[in-house]
Known about the structure:
- The protein has helices at 22-38, 45-54, 64-74, 88-96, 120-127, 134-148, 152-167, 183-186, 189-197, 208-212, 233-238, 242-252, and strands at residues 78-82, 99-103, 170-171, 179-180, 202-205, 224-228.
- By secondary structure, the protein is α/β, with parallel strands linked by helices.
- The strands form two sheets. Strands 4-3-6-5 form a four-stranded mixed β-sheet. Strands 1-2 form a two-stranded parallel ribbon.
- A hairpin with a 7-residue loop joins β3 and β4.
- Residues 1-5 have low confidence and may be disordered.
- Residues 1-266 form the Biopterin-dependent aromatic amino acid hydroxylase family profile domain.
- It catalyses: (6R)-L-erythro-5,6,7,8-tetrahydrobiopterin + L-phenylalanine + O2 = (4aS,6R)-4a-hydroxy-L-erythro-5,6,7,8-tetrahydrobiopterin + L-tyrosine.
Amino acid sequence: MTKGTEYIAHRADDTGFIHYPQEEHDIWRQLYARQAVNLPGRACKEYLQGLDALGMPKDRIPQLAEIDAVLQATTGWKTAAVPALISFGRFFELLANKEFPVATFIRRKEEFDYLQEPDIFHEIFGHCPLLTNPSFANFSHMYGQLGLHASKEERVFLARLYWFTVEFGILQPKNGPLCIYGGGILSSPGETLYAMESDVPERQPFDLLNVLRTPYRIDIMQPIYYVIEHIDMLDEIAKMDIMGYVTKARQLGLFAPKFPPKAKAS
């Protein structure tokens, strides 16, 4: 997570209330309305159940206390207001304490479709509904604890596990259709349609060692998604010897990337 961004997070007042200008509420409303059309039949049922449980407003940016009330009651989690980007160390520390980092700014109109920094729409709309699910919440907690004690080199490999599950994970139930649980897809209209309906990306069964060896880029549609059968499989992954697999992945090295190298700025 690099430092330096044009976005500045809003700070809460003495009562914990964050004041957003009306134009930012308008952007939330537009983003919500657009994704609300895309998700039925594509988002996993656990996400939709969480979205319903949170009951977040459609016409304004929610206050973190509103989200916390539901998360605390369901899985014991809460949000933590953070600047636009934070260090890996701080990220793992928060997850290990059952606090989900939320950058308190929202994208501008010119970056409506995609931005590299995770904004409040990505964090709240994309991730928080599934934090009401025990398996997803437990996996996120375990991941934070692992990362907190991992070396800098190990964290780079752990980042791939998070990327291909929490951010860009897909489910394929035995007797049901393909569906999404990754927040990076759920908060992106373009990636939602691409991940579910395009023939371009590969969809591979989840294999921990392969996941840890797969390169990714944050600024493109994903060329590969890893698929688990149901959300409870996150509990099974959490019980695996993940750091042992990290060691093996480091020894074997990365797969060749399935994407072109990023063009250098002139």
